[in-house]
Amino acid sequence: MPLYTEPMWQALLDLLFPRRSLLGEEGEWITPFERQRLVFFPVREETALLRKRGITHLDRLVAASTYAHTPLLRRAIHTFKYGRIRDLDGELGQLIAESAPPTEILQPVLCPVPLHWMRRFARGFNQAERLARVVARKRGLPLRHLLQRIRPTGSQTRRSREERLTALTDAFRCTDHAVPKFVVLIDDLSTTGATLEACAKALKDAGVERVEGWVVAHG
C-alpha cells in the first residue's frame, strides 16, 4: 500500500509551488472571472478563401476566436503549452467544441496534430491530443491518431509563411491504411495554416476526401 496518495502529493506540491491563475491570482489555474473572459468569437475560412491564401489541401479552418477578440487567450494557450498546465485542456477544448460547426451530414473523425517524439518527450504531453480528447467527449465524435510527424521541424514561431511551408514539407505521414472519408485536425493555434496544410496533404495523399482544421485560436 503506498504511503502517500495522489491528493496528498498534490497538496504538498500546491504548498511548495502555489497554483497561480492566468492573471496571477493564487489558488487555481483559472478563476471564474478569467473563465468568463475566455469567450469564443468563431472565425471560419471556407475552401475558396483558403485556396486564395495558397492552402490547397485543407478544406475549412475553424478557430474558436482570435487573440484580438479574446486577449486572454494568448496567455491561456502559452500557459497550457509551455507552462505545461495540462488542466487547462478542458477550458480550451470546450471553446473548440462550442464554436465548431454541426456535422450531421457526414460524421468526421478527429485527429490531433502530432508532435515529433523529441518535442513530446521534452514537453511531457501533446497539447493537441489533450484538446482532441475534450472535443471528442463534448461532441460525441471518434478520435484516431492517423498521423505521425516523421522528422523534427523546430519552432515555427519566428518563421515566415514561406519558411514554415518549407520546414513542414513531407514532415507528416498517414499511419493508417483504412482512412475515413472526413477528418478534422485538432490543434491549439493556426497562424499561417502551414502545419494544418501539411497534415491535410498527408491525409489526402492517403485517400481522405475532406479535411478540416479546428483550433482554439487564429493567431
Structure keywords:
two-stranded antiparallel sheet; alpha/beta; five-stranded mixed beta sheet; 9 helices
Beta-sheet strand percentage?
A: 15-25%
Estimate the helix proportion, in percent.
25-40%
- Rounded to an integer in angstroms, the radius of gyration calculated over CA atoms is 18 Å
Task: Point out poorly predicted stretches.
Answer: 1-6
**Category by helix and strand content:** alpha/beta
**Order of strands across the widest beta sheet?**
1-2-7-6-3
Could you describe the largest sheet, including whether it forms a barrel? Answer: 5 strands, mixed
Any overview of this molecule?
By secondary structure, the protein is α/β, with parallel strands linked by helices. The chain has nine helices and seven strands, in the order H-H-E-H-E-H-H-E-H-H-E-H-E-E-H-E. The protein has helices spanning 6-16, 32-37, 47-52, 72-81, 89-99, 117-123, 127-139, 161-168, 194-205, and strands spanning 43-45, 60-66, 109-112, 147-149, 172-174, 182-190, 210-218. The longest helix has 13 residues, at 127-139. The termini are far apart. 35% of the residues are buried. The model is unreliable at 1-6 (pLDDT under 50).
